[in-house]
Amino acid sequence: MEIINPHDKFFKETFSIRENVIDFLSGTFPSKILKKLDLSTLTQDNNSYIDEEHKEHFSDIVYTCFCKDKELRITLLFEHKSYAVACPYLQLMKYLLKIWESNNKQAQRLMPVIPVILYHGKDTWKARRFRDYFEGIDEEFLRFIPEFEYLLTDLSSYSNEEIKDRVFRRASLQITMLLMRNIYNDKILGDKLKVFFEIGRQYFEEEGGVKFLESVIRYLYYASDIEEERVIDTLKEISEEGGKLSMTIAARLIEKGKITGRMEGRMEGREEGRAEGAIEGERKGRIEGLIEAIEIGLELKYGVNGLRLLERIRKIAVIEKLESIKEAVKISKNMEEIEKLL
Length: 342
Fold this sequence. Notes:
Layout: H1 6-15, H2 18-28, H3 31-34, E1 37-44, E2 61-67, E3 73-81, H4 88-105, E4 113-119, E5 151-154, H5 160-167, H6 171-182, H7 186-199, H8 207-223, H9 228-238, H10 240-255, H11 260-271, H12 275-306, H13 310-313, H14 319-331, H15 335-339
Parallel strand pairs: 3-4, 4-5
Antiparallel strand pairs: 1-2, 2-3
Helix pairs in contact: 1-6, 1-8, 6-7, 6-8, 7-9, 8-10, 9-10, 10-11, 11-12, 12-14
């Protein structure tokens, strides 16, 4: 599949823009830390600190900047999560070690790293100290456990109005955060889609805005169940060029077989004037969309091992059963729970 995690891809595209990161830091960072950072020196670190095995699952967005009051560089590590993880420290420590190894290899002094997690999943994120994961440990052994913190931005803690009117200033970041916050609720997302697009009405006419809009359209096509036609029609009301772009992207994805079942069946059914063709297209499209969502969920929770169930899942043609499997993947604690449904 071309996009293994559409959430990560959208996050990377947005946070690779320096001005978006500055806006994010200004809106979410604790004031005591923010006032010590010289954001005018903020620079993206283009080195990758993850290996090939994990490159599609880890976000790997890193920036550095100097302190205001001394010649000290600080590393800012941004990690995105669309689902809650049991112990985020283990993944974060892999990053920290890679960064410090790079410092050491280049004969640099070790840089302080501030890990930042952006979370927009369905479940409640339970923040704990690393030492709390070592249950039953005696006080004498605590000094042997690494201790560090991360800064959490949980989008569920903000309302749509706060994101739009108070927390962030840039149109692209506002739209990104609003889409991520509501991506799992198709009703709210569909009802608010025009409101969200309105934020970027002027920005979409600029060169950078067109590129961002393309990212937005792809994210909606891959990560939500909103019909492509609804995205196209809504964008047409905001921007004629935006409507054309959304249709062009949909056509490209159809050609590549990415959303064939979801859109092509509907279009062909309508063009041929056959109601039964449209219904069949809708059914096939729903099945394709569900299987794609299950595939993403399995890989996110269980890695490559989770994909061994796909061959059996792809043989299922009952929408209700696929919907049950999709929900089971979200709440499952192990793969055996999912296998019982197959």
